[in-house]
Specification:
- This protein is an alpha+beta fold.
- The strands form 2 sheets. It has a 3-stranded antiparallel β-sheet with strand order 1-5-2. It has a two-stranded antiparallel sheet with strand order 3-4.
- It starts with 9 loop residues before the first helix and ends with a strand.
């Protein structure tokens, strides 16, 4: 999918991408040529902005690939470092979309 023109901000581009599809930080990072760390910062701001519009940033939670633990109650967009259940680090990263 082509990235929108440079005349709109990174956050506007992120919102446009996440309105149409569910994507992870890595895909967003590659599409917008930003570091993943910057993407996480933008996602936090987008979540606040969307609340004022009555919309929300949804997070398809991270899942431990070793034991199947689902990080349902995690609010931060960054992926967890390890599983609280089995302590392993094989974790499927969260995915994001706008509802």
């Amino acid at each position: 999918k082509p990235v929108p023109p440079d005349s709109i901000t990174i956050r506007q581009q992120l919102m446009a991408l996440l309105t149409d599809q569910t994507l992870g930080a890595r895909e967003l990072s590659q599409a917008l040529h930003q570091s993943e760390k910057e993407i996480y910062t933008h996602l936090q701001h987008i979540a606040r902005s969307l609340k004022t519009e009555g919309r929300s940033l949804k997070i398809d939670p991270a899942v431990c690939l070793s034991c199947g633990f689902v990080f349902r109650h995690r609010q931060r967009p960054e992926p967890p470092g390890h599983c609280p259940n089995c302590r392993k680090t094989r974790i499927r990263r969260p995915q994001y979309y706008i509802d």
